[in-house]
Amino acid sequence: MNAELHTLTGAYALHALSDDEREEFERHLGDCEACTQEVRELTATAARLGLAVSVTPPPEMKAAALRRISTVRQEPPVAPAPARPVAARFRGRRMARFALAACMAVTAGSAGVAVWQHQSADDAQQQARAAQQQSEQLAGVLAAPDAKATTGQLAGGASGTLVVAHSKNQAVFVASSMPKPPSGKVYQLWFNDAGTMRSAGLMDPSQTTEAVLLSGPVDKASGMGITVEPSGGSPAPTSAPLALMNFATA
Asked: Where mainly located (predicted)?
């Protein structure tokens, strides 16, 4: 298997590959669970980093960029060597993309070395497609013009940011430094519908930093809560909420 493909996880998570590169890398994901997991983690990290830059650019930025286009000299094209192998096509970008992936992993504090269990290629491809679809929805919420964020401190020194975009009827929760739940337990998220809690999905118990697209529509919910539930989740909360956060209104 082409070892160069293992260095493209960061670029894939940021949609920075060409169509041909993306197709080849997605075929690689079908055989590599390690890259599938790393893409999932880097995608969540990219969404979390997006919160730091999710501001509306000033109107004069476009005009300034157009002015600078006419003053920056474009480098001449370089003719590719004939019959250049796939590995060579990727080599020029390898170090920059590897550095990007490494920086993202350090920032998130969640990417590391793991022991991977073999899965079928079809299963891995399904996971990759599901992760990509979720990342696109998550990024859409964060980039929505009406996205509003609420940030607060949680128990155990953790912090959380709740982002809602009513135009998409969706919300995202980003947790940082979350303590791992007790063995056999999981953090479950809930929409707060006028005091009635509606399940909004589970957090990954192995992650301390995670961006989660809440399951289901926001509708008339005023915020969300977090409880500790048995592995697999519960149809209704079985414990007092660890935190309650309201959606920002302005």
From this structure: membrane
What backbone phi and psi angles, to 5 degrees, belong to 106?
-65, -40
Number of domains forming the structure of the chain: 2
Token pair, residue 55, equals 């501001």
Considering the domain architecture, whether residues 10 and 132 belong to the same structural domain is answered as yes
The answer to whether residues 15 and 125 belong to one domain is: yes
Type of residue at 55: V
Per-residue pLDDT tens over the stretch 68-95: 555 555 555 555 455 444 444 444 444 3
Convert the pLDDT of each residue in 118-143 to its tens digit.
Answer: 455 556 666 667 667 777 888 888 88
Provide the residue range defining the domain that includes 159.
146-246
Higher pLDDT, 152 or 91: 152
- On whether both 7 and 110 belong to a single domain, the answer is yes
Which pLDDT belongs to residue 209? Answer: 86
- Alpha-carbon distance of 246 to 42, in angstroms, equals 27
Cβ–Cβ under 8 Å, residues 174 and 210: yes
CA distance 245 to 161: 9
Regarding pTM above 0.90, the answer is no
CB-based contacts of 233, cutoff 8 Å, min separation 6: 186, 188, 199, 202
Same domain for 98 and 20, yes or no, is yes
